[in-house]
Description:
mainly alpha; 74% helix; 0% strand
Amino acid sequence: MGNSDTDKNENPKLRLKLRQFIYHLRNDFLSTENIILVVAIFLCGLWTYQSIVSMSRNWKLHEDLSTIQKERDILSIEIETAELENAYYSSAEYQEIAARRYLDKKLPGENMVKLPSNSEAAKTKHAQKTVQKTTDQDISNFEKWIRFIFPSA
C-alpha cells in the first residue's frame, strides 16, 4: 500500500511534466511559422539537389553529343575520301598508271627504265613530321566548362 501512495504522488507530477512538454512542443516548436519555415527549407534543398542532378545530366549529355558529333565528322570525311578514291580508281588516268606500273605497259615511242628500289635512308630523308592534334585530354577543365556554357565560342 505504501507503493500506491508514491504512485499517486508521482503520477500527477509526471502528467504535469508531460502536459507542459506537449504544450511547449505545440506552441513553441510546432507553430505555423516554424512548420512553414521547415517546409520552405526542405523545398529549397530539394530544388538545389534537383538543379545539381539536372546540370550533371546535361553535362554528360553534352559530352556524349560532342563525342557523337566528332565520330560523325570523322565518318563523313572517311566516306568522302572513299568516294574520291572510287572516282580516281575508275578514271582513265589511274588505269593508265596502273597498266604502266603493274603490267609494264608503255605508250608508243616511250622507253622504259627500271630503277633499283630506294634504301631506307632515302625513303625517310624527306618524311613529313606528324602534326599533333588537340584532343579532349589536352584541353583544360576550365576550357571544357567555357565550351559547355558558351557552345558557339
